[in-house]
Amino acid sequence: MGAKSLLALSFGAAFVLGQESCPGYSASNVQQSGSGLTADLTLAGEACNAYGTDLPNLTLTVEYQSANRLHVLIEDQDHTVYQVPNDVFPRPGSAGSADSSNLRFTFTESPFSFAVARVDGETLFNTSGTPLVFESQYLNLRTSLPDNPNLYGLGEHTDPFRLNTTNYTRTIWNRDAYGIPPGSNLYGAHPTYIDHRGASGTHGVVLLNSNGIEVKINDTAGQYLEYNTLGGVFDFYFVAGPSPVETAQQLAEVVGLPANVPYGGLGYHNCRYGYQDVYEVAGVVHNYSEAGIPLETMWTDIDYMNDRWIMTVDPDRFPMALVRQLVDYLHQHQQKYTVMVDPATAYVPGGEYGAFNDGVEQDIFLKNSSGDLFLGVVWPGPTVFPDWFHPQSQAYWSGQFDSFFNADTGIDIDYLWIDMNEAANFCNYPCSDPFGYAEENNFPPEAPAVRNGSPIALPGFSADFQPPSSAAKLRLRRQENTASMMGLPDRDLIDPPYSIQNAAGSLSNKTIHTDIIHYNGLAEYDTHNLYGTMMSNHSRNAMLSRRPQDRTLVITRSTFLGAGQYVGHWLGDNISDWPHYRISIAQMLAFSSIFQIPMVGSDVCGFGGNTTEALCARWMMLGAFYPFYRNHNELGAISQEAYRWESVAESARIAIDIRYRMLDYFYTSFYEQTVDGTPSLNPMMFLYPEDSNTFAIDLQFFFGSSVLISPVTEENGTSVDIYLPNDIFYDWNNGFAPVQGSGKTISLEDVDFQTIPIHIRGGSILPLRSESANTTTELRKKSFQIVIAPGQDGTANGTLYLDDGLSLEQAATSYISFTWDGSTFSMSGTYDYGAGVDISTITLLGANSQPQSVRSNGADLSATYNSTTKVVNVEANIPLSGDATVSFGQVSAFTGTASSAVSSNALLLASVAASVMCLSGFW
Ligand SMILES: *[C@@H]1O[C@H](CO)[C@@H](O)[C@H](O)[C@H]1NC(C)=O
Ligand SMILES: *[C@@H]1O[C@H](CO)[C@@H](O)[C@H](O)[C@H]1NC(C)=O
Ligand SMILES: *[C@@H]1O[C@H](CO)[C@@H](O)[C@H](O)[C@H]1NC(C)=O
Ligand SMILES: *[C@@H]1O[C@H](CO)[C@@H](O)[C@H](O)[C@H]1NC(C)=O
Ligand SMILES: *[C@@H]1O[C@H](CO)[C@@H](O)[C@H](O)[C@H]1NC(C)=O
Ligand SMILES: *[C@@H]1O[C@H](CO)[C@@H](O)[C@H](O)[C@H]1NC(C)=O
Ligand SMILES: *[C@@H]1O[C@H](CO)[C@@H](O)[C@H](O)[C@H]1NC(C)=O
């Protein structure tokens, strides 16, 4: 204890010691091959033992894995140091050679350092400034960077999308982080960054390491980025880009391609914590329908559980028979149902609690060193935690799902929500009396009063939607504390000499203790950051085992590198305020465009605290352009379902209408990301990588690659300054009228609370549905409207992917490419999926005149022209079953002379009328 405190006290000094007098390593026995090299690295002097013991012998392995990927691994010679298990993170394959690589690895033998450069000379990574430190509980490596670099990634955080470059610390240690404070470690671990250098290109760097990490970015010894980890090895993947989109694609090759989602998963979701009973949930479904706001999926938080025990229902408030009726009702109306499941399982020995008993029988819960179950405190009180490394953990988890979520006898959920999987534990370290802690802090919290029968009229629900007369409540008592006092186990795993700036305090605080050893012998100290992703993988498999034919949608809180292969992510417990509304964009962009977890979104209208009418109206519109679009609210906060205020209801109707008309456009982008990692959301700098004005923009973004979303971001405001690069755009809210961007910020005034500025980027062709619908099932019956938005060169292109939206293995799909060459629209591709609808309309934007004729297949098509908006609408009626062309005779394209003022004035005029309408009764 004394020695530890001394180290803690001398933190600053010891760190300097690490930098200045650690000996570094010398390389020897260098073996070169066509595909890379290996070398021995030997400690080059007296050990400094700054934060643990220096390892004397390391090996360096360098592999040119593909033309654009280089793998650099520095590990201990004995292979005893922990590395992320291959079955949790399968390594990418390797088939490259030095000769064919766009990257070049060079090194200095002594003191050892290495550099990665492009073959044209640009140095991307260079560790020569400081000695490499590789100790038992501490690794340190620093790369120098250009001044004021454009760095992005290193999640999960709520700092700006473009990372701070001075005096900046990014701690990576998964944590239950209520309120998602900036500058702190949050739920997920993504030690990936991209470095964008404008015309010199973009590259990406992944450090595959699941230990606690502190990245420091500073400019006080030249500009640098430095890794400090509490263990593991240096396992780097460098990808060459050189464009941001190519960088994203290459990062997907490292971490794995994201899973596709069911089409319906892109519909609008509603949830809250604090629905008192099944009637209230049914009432919300009913109210959405009454309000004419399309609700695709209803969710229930932990409220449905009996005393917060997973895999149970509260027999009074959520009796199984009624929950089943609710689910039937939803399914009959083409809607879906989702509930939350946590990993923490109530500790109930000797009772009749199946999830606990089965787990004990199969021995799948984590244990402490004395062999007793490891206990924390979560919602149900004292809890145990599944050990996802146990060989039976999948069978156990799937078994629980098969029975509790059984279609015939249980809750037939469509999607799944998993939470608290960092893992969260409310009990402060050392949590020596979980029973006392639970008692004092009221876990499980008291359930709300039982209501007698449905308090609200629920037309459409059957007459027996009533509570059971006097069902005896199954309430299993907790047992006396049988766990031994834990004491301090191996202290290195609890209190390592180097402390990362974990906002929860010590490493083990508020989570599973880091000295817990998993069934397979791995320490939680090393694998903590994997817990949520392993639960994600298990949960996805359990959902697929229930409905083996169908894609599933699992939304998780905690993630690690590669989690997108299994799940989507909601951005956690945000707060209902404007800063959280704004930061949601940067967060979402990092997950979609860098971490390859594209099914992402924040709690719309905000989770914690009370929302306001203005905020909720704006957020319902912004959320319509999150891939994952869910309104969610906290227990105790004022209600915020979209129908609670007429202004918000109207915002929701308008935004959902737009989202749904764009749904196949977005589904196509999402599909493309699952195929090759092309981002389905784009930061502005991804599409304008040479325009330095875009590098720090994180309040505007592209939904897909063609639709620029520029929400109003100021509290209660009705104006917004938006940046338009030097390109042609078309204003969605002004009849698609062209707007010439000129690399300047323009002000949009009087943007009412039912308007979100949307611009289509020139050069795009968008497949829209011709109208929206109440559910995505109905939406799929609507015909298509193809919108051609010519670029500055007069041409445009786009794609449309069609499938049945649900099957895991598709029997037939269509993938259609659209092009516009300035006078002819063509489509070509595959048409195996029978969409059952046609292209009813082709809309050409930016036309300076009415075309003399529009012809397809020798026939004249009827066309109308709007000279104000410069839009031609053609009645096309072209089947989606084969290649086709439509030629527009003599149409001259917009030449980009109209000023942006045209559009903003028009928007101003249009929105004044609307705002007058909305303001009545709003303020
Ligand atoms: C490191 O390598 C040297 C030279 O091979 C060997 O003598 C020494 O025992 C090794 N040390 C350890 C701790 O393995
Ligand atoms: C940045 O460098 C300054 C000066 O050395 C130092 O005081 C500060 O702690 C550093 N910040 C970080 C995050 O490393
Ligand atoms: C660096 O940041 C820390 C904490 O974020 C702050 O306390 C300190 O004053 C900053 N130092 C400098 C030199 O800006
Ligand atoms: C990042 O920089 C911004 C702007 O300078 C500053 O407000 C913020 O506190 C910084 N965040 C951290 C974590 O250093
Ligand atoms: C654990 O967290 C609690 C609440 O944030 C804090 O008061 C306590 O000091 C922390 N304990 C340790 C060991 O970090
Ligand atoms: C939210 O509003 C309710 C009702 O007005 C109030 O009781 C509660 O204190 C508010 N919560 C917060 C965090 O302001
Ligand atoms: C925004 O509106 C809310 C009421 O909806 C009000 O409480 C708040 O003070 C307003 N904020 C500003 C900055 O005017």
From TrEMBL:
It is found in: Secreted. It holds the Pfam family Glyco_hydro_31_2nd. PROSITE patterns: GLYCOSYL_HYDROL_F31_1 (PS00129). It is an enzyme of class 3 (hydrolase). Residues 259-668 form the Glycoside hydrolase family 31 TIM barrel domain. Residues 677-766 form the Glycosyl hydrolase family 31 C-terminal domain. Keywords: Carbohydrate metabolism, Cell wall biogenesis/degradation, Glycoprotein, Glycosidase, Hydrolase, Polysaccharide degradation, Secreted, Signal. Residues 99-211 form the Glycoside hydrolase family 31 N-terminal domain. Its EC number is 3.2.1.20, 3.2.1.21. It catalyses: Hydrolysis of terminal, non-reducing beta-D-glucosyl residues with release of beta-D-glucose; Hydrolysis of terminal, non-reducing (1->4)-linked alpha-D-glucose residues with release of alpha-D-glucose. Glucosidase involved in the degradation of cellulosic biomass. Has both alpha- and beta-glucosidase activity. This is Probable alpha/beta-glucosidase agdC. It comes from Knufia obscura.
